[in-house]
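Example 3.2
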Amino acid sequence: MTQPDYERIRVYLQGQAAQRTTDELCQRVQEAVDELAAAARGVPASMLHVIPDGDEWTPMACLKHSAA
């Protein structure tokens, strides 16, 4: 991730933190984790290490990146 990406994410998170309670933020993070897990379960195991046409990353590489 580049420095501009970090800055963009930092600004977004600060904005969200100013608008929501800690409990609301934690709930939203859990919802996002659940959404990611559901999407990952929807990928057939045989496709986890295959780069889809037009993409640069495999589904597994995307999951690893999101967990880092």
